[in-house]
Amino acid sequence: MEKRSYFAGKLLPYALLMPQLLVTIVFFYVPAGQAVYQSFLLQDAFGMSTQFVWLENYQLLLSDPGYYQAMTVTAVFSVAVTTLSLSAALLLAVQADKSLRGAGIYKTLLIWPYAVAPVVAGVLWLFMFQPSLGMVAGGLRRMGVDWNPYLNSGDALTLVVLAAAWKEVSYNFLFFLAGLQAIPKSLIEAAAIDGARPTRRFWTIIFPLLSPTAFYLLTVNIVYVFFDTFGIIHAVTHGGPAGATTTLVYKVFNDGRAGGDLGGSAAQSVILMAIVIALTAVQFRFIERKVNY
Amino acid sequence: MVENRPLANLVSHLILITGVAIVAFPVYLALVASSSDPTTIANGQLGLIPEGHLFENYWKVLFQGTERSTKQPMIVPLFNSLVMALIISIGKIAISLISAFAIIYFRFPFRHTAFWVIFLTLMLPVEVRIYPTYKIVADLGMLDTYAGLTIPLIASATATLLFRQFFMTVPDELLEASKIDGAGPWMFFKDTLLPLSMTSIAAMFVIQFIYGWNQYLWPLLITTRDDMQTIVIGIQKMLYVTDALTEWQLAMATTILAMLPPVVVVVAMQKLFVRGLTETEK
User: Fold this and answer.
1) How many domains would you assign to chain A?
2) In Å, how far from its chain's centre is CA A274?
3) Facing A119 at nearest CB: one of B41, B132, B216
4) Comparing C-alpha atoms, which of B175, B186, B275, B99 is closest to residue A24?
5) What CA–CA distance (Å, rounded) separates A65 from A82?
6) Hey, which residues does B106 pair with through a beta bridge?
7) How many domains does chain B have?
8) Of A106, A108, A164, A178, whose CB count within 10 A is highest?
9) B272: nearest Cα among B198, B214, B170, B212
10) CATH value at residue B128
11) Which of A146-150, A153-157, B124-128 has the highest mean pLDDT?
12) Which residue in the set A27, A127, A280 is minimally distant from B33, CB to CB?
C-alpha cells in the first residue's frame, strides 16, 4: 500500500491538496453540517426568531402522512425500476455473451442510453405517453385503456418507472456482460459434458457466479432511483398527481422551496444522508468481499 | 460457445433486436417529431416516417427560440452546457490528480485524514444538502455564474480514488530513477506520471463529461436567467407553458440536441467509456 520512496516536501503536499479540500469543506461539509444543525431548529413563519427544539422537526416529520407517502412511493419506485432494469439487462447480456455474429454491434446499440440525461429520458417517454397526442397513449386508448398520467396516480408512476428503467438498462447490461465474460469457459464446458442443458447451466452455474455483480448493481440502482431520477420526476409529473410520484428527494426540494420550512426540509435531508451512508457502506462491504474472492 | 444450436442463436438474435428496438424507439420518435409541424403532432397524427420540417425546426430552436415559453435561442444553453461539462470534467481531473499525487508521493501529518475527507464526500450527494449549499453559493455571489455552476461540483472522490489506485501500481523504481536524475516533484509529475496516466485520464474524462453535461438539480437551483440555463433545463422550461400549447416539435428538437453530444462521446470513445465506468466501480 505504501510507496517505499517519496518526496521530502513539507508544504507542497498541502498546497497540492488545497483546491480539493477547499471545495469539499466549503461546498460539502459546511452545508451538510448546517443541514444537521438546522434540523434541530424551529423558525417562526416570518423568520424573526429561531429556537432550538431538539428532535421536534423529526417528530413532526414522522407524524406527517405525506412523509410516509413519499417513503412508500420511493420504495415502490425503487423495487419496480431495479427489478425491471436488472432483469431486462440480464436477459440481454446473456444473449450478447454468446459468440453471436454482430455481438459488438448489439453492445454499442445497447449502451448509449447511459449518456442520456434522466430528464431527457423522461421527456422522451412523456412524448410517447402524453394522453392527448402521444403515439403509445393513442394505441392504449384504441385498445380501450383509459390512460392519463396527469390524473391517474398509477399511470403517472408507471410512466416514470418506464423512463427510469429504460435509461438504467445500459449500465446494468454493461456490468452483467463484463461479469458473464469473467466466468471461466471451462466451467460451462465441464457442465455441458456432464449433460447440463443451457437453462440448467444458467441457474446452477452462471447465475450464482453473477450474484456479486447483481448485488453491486442492486445498490447502484437504488442510489440511482433515490437521487438521479429527480430530473425525470421534476420534468414529467412534478411529483403529482396528488403526490403519487413524490419521492423523498423531490419532497426535500419541494418543501424547502415552496414551503420555506427550513427545519423540516433539513430534517428530511439528514434522514436522506443516513440512507446514503448506509447504502454506500453496504456497497463497500460488498466490494471488499469481492476482492477476497 | 459450448454447443452450436442454430435455433437458440436465432432466438438470441430476436431478443437482442427487440431490446435494441425498444431502446432506440423513443429517440427515433423524437427525431420524427422534430421533423414535423405543430398541427400534425397536436392532432396526434404523427406517423413513423420523418417529415420535411427538420432543418426549419432545428434552425428555429438553435437561433430563434420558441415562440412561447422562454424564447431563448438554444445555441446559448447548448454553449453553457458545453462550458459546464468541460470545466467540471477537466477541473475534477486536475484537482484529483494533484490530490492523489500528494497523498501517494509525500509523507506529511494528516495525510490519511485528508484522504478520508475527500473520500467521504461520496456520501454527501448534492441532493442531501440542497438548500444550505444553495445559500453558500448565493452568499458568495456565485448565482448565475459559470463558477457557481461548476466549482461546487468539482470535488471528486471517485477520480481521486481512481488516480490513487493507479499511482500505487506505478513502480517505485521510476521515482527512484527520476530522483537520481535530479528531478523534483513537479518534473516527476509532468514527465513521468502524467504520460503514464493518459489512458486513465481519458477514461475519466468521458465519464465526467457525461456527468457534467447531464447535471439537472444543481443548474435548476442556481440559474435564474434564461441565458445562463443549460440545455437540459431548457427542455423542461419548454414543456410547461402557461396558457398555451407546448411546441412539441421544438421541444423534441431540443431533446435531440441535448442528448447528441454525450451520446456521441460514448459511442466514439466506447472503449475508454467502458474502461472508465468499470474502473470507477469504486
Assistant:
1) 1
2) 16
3) B216
4) B99
5) 26
6) A7
7) 1
8) A164
9) B198
10) 1.10.3720.10
11) A153-157
12) A127
**What one-letter code names the amino acid at B108?**
F
Pick A174's closest partner by Cβ from B258, B265, B277. Answer: B277
The boundaries of the domain holding residue A87 are: 66-260
The residue range of the domain holding B91 is 76-222
| A237 touching B (Cβ < 8 Å) | no
Residues 153-212 of chain B whose Cβ lies under 8 A from any Cβ of chain A: 154-156, 160, 168, 172, 175-176, 179, 184-185, 188, 210
Q: How confident is the model at residue A30 (pLDDT cuts 50, 70, 90)?
A: very high
Q: Identity (one letter) of the amino acid at A250?
A: Y
Is B274 within 8 Å of A174 when comparing Cβ atoms? yes
In chain A, whose CA is at the least distance from the CA of B213?
A117
Contact A262 B135 (CB under 8 A): no
Asked whether residue B16 is domain-assigned, the answer is: no
Compare all CA atoms of chain B with the CA of A284 and give the residue at the minimum distance: B282
Q: Do residue B213 and residue A117 have CB atoms under 8 angstroms apart?
A: yes
Question: What is the residue-wise DSSP string for A103-116?
Answer: HHHHHHHHHGGGGS
Q: Which amino acid is at A197?
A: R
Q: State the cell numbers at A116.
A: 442520456
In this structure, the strands spanning A41-43 and A50-52 are antiparallel
Is A41 inside a domain boundary? no
Interface of B with A in 203-262 (CB under 8 A): 210, 213-214, 216-217, 220, 232, 235-236, 239, 248, 251-252, 255, 258-259, 262
Question: Which range is most confident: A155-164, A190-199, A264-273, B65-74?
Answer: A155-164
Instruction: Provide mean pLDDT across the span B81-85.
Output: 94
Does some domain include residue A200?
yes
Instruction: Note the ipTM here.
Output: 0.89
Minimal-distance CA residue of chain A relative to B137: A27
Contact A119, A234 (CB under 8 A): yes
A248 backbone φψ class: left, alpha, beta (φ>0; ψ -120 to 50): alpha
**Contacts of residue B213 in chain A, CB cutoff 8 Å?**
117
Does residue B230 belong to any structural domain of this protein? Answer: no
Q: What is the 3-state secondary structure (H, E, C) of chain B?
A: CCCCCHHHHHHHHHHHHHHHHHHHHHHHHHHHHCCCCHHHHHCCCCCCCCCCCHHHHHHHHHHHCCCCCCCCCCHHHHHHHHHHHHHHHHHHHHHHHHHHHHHHHECCCCHHHHHHHHHHHHHCCHHHHHHHHHHHHHHCCCCCCHHHHHHHHCCCHHHHHHHHHHHHHCCHHHHHHHHHCCCCHHHHHHHHHHHHHHHHHHHHHHHHHHHHHCCCHHHHHHCCCHHHCCHHHHHHHHHCCCCCCCCHHHHHHHHHHHHHHHHHHHHHCHHHHHHHHHHCCC
